[in-house]
Amino acid sequence: MIGIRERLLAAFQVEYQEHLGVIRKLIVDLAMRAEGAGSPQLDEIFRRAHSLKGAARAVDMAPVEQMAHRLETLFTRLRSGAVVMDPPLAARIADALDSVEDWVTAFAGGTQPPDMGPAIGALEALLSLSDDPPPPPPAAPMVPAEIEAAVAAAAVPEPEAQPEPVSAPQPIAEPEPPRVAVQAEDTVRVRAVHLDRLLRTSNELLTESMNQRTVTESLQDVDRRLTEMDKEWRRLRKFAAGMARDLGDRDRAQAWDRQAEAWEQELRVVAREARRSRRLQQRNGWATRQLGTELQQEVRDARMVPADSVFAGFRKMVRDLARDAGQQVDVQVHGLDVEADRMVLQGLKDPVMHLLRNSLAHGVESPAERVAAGKPPAAIVGLSFSVSDGRLAVVVEDDGRGISYGSIRAKAVGQGMFTVEEAADLPRQALIDLIFDPGFSTSRDVNDLSGRGMGLSVVRETATMMNGTVQVSERQPTGTRFRLSVPLSVSTQRLFLVACQGYTYALPTEGIDRLHRVASESVGTVEGKSVVFLSGQQLPLLSLAHLLALGETAVTVSRNVVPLVVLKHGERRVAVAVDDFLSIREAMVRDIGVPAAIGTMVAGGMLLEDGAVALVLNPFEIVETFRKSGTTRVLTTVEKPPEARTPVILVVDDSLTTRTLEKSILEAHGYIVRLAVDGLEALGKVRAEHVDLVISDIQMPRLDGFGLLQALKADPVLKKIPLILVSSLEAREDRERGLALGADAYVVKRKFDQRELLDTIGQIL
Questions:
Q1: What pLDDT sits at residue 134?
Q2: CATH number of the domain enclosing 664
Q3: Which of 57, 167, 479, 535 might form a disulfide with 399, Cβ 3.0–4.6 angstroms?
């Protein structure tokens, strides 16, 4: 069971970091803007120092309380205009805040806290208050210490003045904190593990709600089938009733009619229930998807935390590492108020730490070296956070030596990666790529900061797994700049699905520049490599199958058209050929583990509606693969085989019995049948939908079979549709007329043989 003091200390750990972070940020802003007394920033700084003092008193941290008291007094003088903010004063305040952070960190870690006397003395000298004693401690409370501490933590009141001996000096009058007009929002602290579980649950809920579309489509199909069954049943009922009447058996006809009526009523009831269920499911499915989307967005917003929550201690870490290495650094941290998904920030913790250590190990010089080079003795190490194009950008930079391309070449030759001549010809970007290889390090010695060659490889691998990128550039006028770019959230991403070699792959839309469908003849070759010209720009081209080493690399095309996805990374553009474009989905990208051969291009997986998993590719790594690849493979295409499609036959006859008979025969042999009562209706249907074959009677109202045949052959679009005449007209001249008009076959009804009709259809189709 955690005691009250432990709970108070845990709360103080969170609160004091928040106060220090705000004071640091506002001090930097004031030093740059040089605003005068009474500014809102100074009011907020004073309030934070006052709250820090009260919180430190509640947990009995006297050194922190004394330092906060001096800071409070200094901020009072800044507000009144007695002291002016400038960079040297901002640096003194930053040192005081660092001493508070060092003391609390040591205290919380169970080690001996450092002496804060020198830091407090420096502030006293600044305030010309060295003769004044520190504020007196409050008198012993009349209630148990635990209760007093709990009350103090909740309200943080100022202690009432206690009677002092006459000879004791009076404490410095403490100014009242300013009144704040804006009320703070109500907040509640939730354990991160609960948010993680809630995120997974919301994602699974949204995925399941998406799967409801399949159920809706199935119910719609059932509804359509029941409607067709109802129509066919009515036709069959009339046909059967007519046959019974023709046989003269009235009793059986009436009995059949009653039974048929009962069946028809039951069929209608089932159809109504199916239609109602389909509408209800469609409405519920839509509502579930909407609620799932809203829940996911709410969880995503709840998981968004400021970068300060993860990286607040990095300033101290860099400062301590530099001190141990005998270096002087000015650590500049910006953008800690930028918010991103907590899991994204946690995932970046190790890469950013490696980049900062890399700056100290390879970039920052010793003070003597810097002075000799005409630089200030203290190096600048910067860490900044920002949002760019909907992604989180993290920049780590320093003003040190910069990238030593000569050292990289020498190390590559020493490891047998290249000959001296080959290394001399390597471009700078290729040399930069080498520093991300596992085990590659230009450090001569192995120490606490460098030498093992694993830090930057971890940075690249983590960025890739997070569907991000890492870029290296030279900082002007000196130094090195690393830029990490990753998604703001891990909850869901907008993905574009493509088909390749029978599999489905996903590409984040933020890495797609545009989509194209080009003729195969538009693909050319330059120096043995495939290229395509799009919008007046020549782009390198490879198939996705070749990039993923899927074996067969030819692109399957339809009607000689190649689908292309143009990917972007910075200013670079490349074209990737796929078999087909599928759809756009919102989905969560999960780490699924992939083979090492393609691991650099695979960011994870997403769950499809049918339960299958689609690999999510990293478009930025694909662009990099293009740049590094020396392949001379030329894009090849293969025409997609025609899909097996069920032929559609239009039966045209004014006799219900004949239409029903022919429809039953044809459907029993797998054909799709459409019906028309005369030539005029048939013309409308062949113009409205695809028909593979027409079977027509001759003697019909409005437009007979000969007229229909003439109309079809006169239409340049419809003239290729074959037509079979099935008629009771047996005269030779009728047969010759039909064949002369362009009929593909002529079948006499009196000699009607379904096998003959089916054989004729098979030969024609």
A1: 44
A2: 3.40.50.2300
A3: 479
